Amino acid sequence: MTNYGLVIDQERCIGCQACAVSCKQENNVPMGQFWNRVLTEGGDKMDTPSGGYPEDGGSGALDMQYQPTACQHCENAPCVKVCPVNATYTRDDGIVEIDYDKCIGCRYCMAACPYNARVFNWDEPEHMPEAGTGDVAARPQGVVEKCTFCSHRVDEGLDPACVVNCPADARIFGDLDDEGSTVSKYINEYETDQLLEDRGTNPKTHYISGEMSPGRPQTSDKMESELDDVSPWSDGAEDVPAEAGESDSSGSGGSHHSIEGDAAPHVPAVGSGGDD
Amino acid sequence: MAADSSRIAIPAFGTKGKLWLGLLASLMVAGLAAWGYQLTTGLVATGMRNVFSWGLYIMMFVLFVGLSAGGLIISSAPKFFHSHRYEGFARLGVLVSLACITVAGLLILPDIGRPERLYQFFTSPDFRSPMVWDFGIVILYGVLNLWYLWLLTRRDLAARGSPLALDVDDTDAGRERDRTLMFWTAALALPTAVALHSVTGWIFATQIGRGDWFSPLVAPVFIAKALVSGLGLLLVVSILADRLTNYEVNREELTSLGKLLGIFLALHVVYLLAAERLPHAWANHFEFWAITESFLIGESVYFWLWTVVGGAVPLVMLMIPSLRKRVSVIFTASLLAVFGTMFEGIRLVFTGYEVANINLPPGISLGGEYAGITTGIWATAGAYTPTLVEVVVTLGIVAFGALIVTLGLKYVPIQRVDGQYATDGGTQERQ
């Protein structure tokens, strides 16, 4: 069985908000709402560190990390269990999705979600541009919506928009049930956490912190499973997917990945990993 | 003549009665208009936002589910034990329960984003959802109340020739059969009432994401709260009905129920609250006085309104024998108990939303500006103030409940007056 999950390497995340913005564009997320938020772990405000500057006897222990947060697509999803009318459900591939034609707007799922990942259309949603992309289902006033792991892209064999558009390759999407997938390998090899693990929701989003991973290996828009016979891990780190340019005709065009000939993960081969 | 054995509380509406009906009607019209406005603009007309997604409607739903307990329990518990105690309150109690459960059910409607899709509860229910259980039990409880009220009064209605008797005849054999039916209805009503309050509690108690909601104590607390507020409201309504209509309260029974309310208050506000707070206070603090302080001192104004104004004060009033004999004292204590219980529901919702589990900046997108929370689109903590629209809609629905009680007093023989039951048939009727 396929069981999609996401690995986010917080050591690679540079807090550029590209995932948050591309999510909003890709999914026609209404004004005033975010499905995907890049939170700052540190100071009281966004992009501010905790601790003091090393001046006037200050400790100099500045510290900051980014916490990209969207629907965690929990295995034991409370939102799915509370939905009285089966509008929120788990797909066979593990994606937690909402049937916007069924949702009655009772917002029990929002009460149930410990991550505040869900948003409600309190009024007639306003889009920018007005017509939206046309790729995703429209959500009327009075229903709840949230991240779908870009199920419309996944169904086409493409990685979610936030994954493809991450300039730091900090987001890796794939099949958690496939032991050979990059997400499974990273979860095994690196120190990963799930958000609010103590709640027992068992999210399918895993966060790497501590040691930096090589990040998303392929430079294609395609999902790893769609790449031809390529496992970036089969013959050492040199062997990486070569068809970086192939999918460029598939709509999203100007991918930042189309560096000719050098499609390797842009990471220095040091094992230590950066500390901020 | 058989009709003499029952009493209608309001034979005809006088000037005051008509003014009252006019007030209720205008509140209902205003509420309907406000709901219409909210339907067109969306729930943005309320004070709720993504960070605080349940508000006044759910708080009042919790209150009115609780309020619907008292009457049915007071009238069915004695029937179940073949006792005639509190007989004078039996019918009024069921009437008040019916009104409250109707108000509770209706309060859900304006909270729903797309009410036209509510049929999905029947076509596509998920039986894992506590809300499905609650939906079912609220409807069952409402129907049960309606049936029970009719069963209690149908022979008297028939004796009066009321069309509400629905062709039932007033015969001795029929009355005898009804007594058996009442026993079985009471036997069904008691567990249904327990289930109603527990399931409503479990809507909250099953949720791991909202702070103190996730507590096994919530359901028992809901039962205790229902006993307190339900009985409190029944006492308030019966004293008012005694003063304003032909309904007559038996003083002895009233005092006895007042005492019972005191016991319920002690169980709820003293014992269960202590049981809930002590483990947290103990685990979170080290010094003796720090533990004690955390145990005794609440965190919000809602806590104090509930425990002191709605708990300690009425408890003391009802504990002192010389005080609790006075109708005015019972009335005030009951009113305070209902008032305080309202803040328990408010506090419960607040404890779920006030603190976000992940409160890192910039926070949670609100989905619409509302000055009651913050002026931007982000919030790292929950805050909520109801808007005028919510208040008017809620008042309109409560007015509908009051209308049910009023019409019940007008059209349903609310009391037996024959000597067999302990109503004080001796005192003269007041107008």
Short synopsis of the structure:
With 276 residues, chain A is an alpha+beta fold.
Your description of this structure?
- The complex is a heterodimer of chains A (276) and B (431).
- Helices cover 13% and strands 13% of the residues of chain A.
- Chain A contains 6 helices and 10 strands, in the order E-H-E-E-H-E-E-H-E-E-H-H-E-H-E-E.
- In chain A, the strands form 4 sheets. A 4-stranded mixed sheet of chain A has the order 8-1-10-9. A two-stranded antiparallel ribbon of chain A has the order 2-3.
- Chain A is globular.
- Chain A starts with a strand and ends in a 68-residue tail after the last strand.
- With 431 residues, chain B is an all-alpha fold.
- Chain B has a single domain, classed as Formate dehydrogenase/DMSO reductase fold (Up-down Bundle), CATH 1.20.1630.10.
- In chain B, 67% of the residues lie in helices and 3% in strands.
- Chain B has 13 helices and 4 strands.
- In chain B, helix 8 crosses helix 9 and helix 10 packs antiparallel against helix 12.
- The longest helix of chain B is centred in the middle third of the chain and has 34 residues.
- Chain B starts with 5 loop residues before the first strand and ends in a 15-residue tail after the last strand.
- The interface between A and B is large, with 54 and 51 residues.
Quote the distance from N terminus to C terminus of chain B: 22 Å
The helix tally of chain A amounts to 6
Question: What is the average per-residue confidence, as pLDDT of chain A, rounded to a whole number?
Answer: 87
CATH class of chain B: Mainly Alpha
Run of helices and strands of chain A:
EHEEHEEHEEHHEHEE
How many helical stretches of chain B?
A: 13
- How many distinct beta strands of chain A? 10
Q: How would you write the strand order of the largest sheet of chain A?
A: 8-1-10-9
**Which CATH architecture of chain B would you pick?**
Up-down Bundle
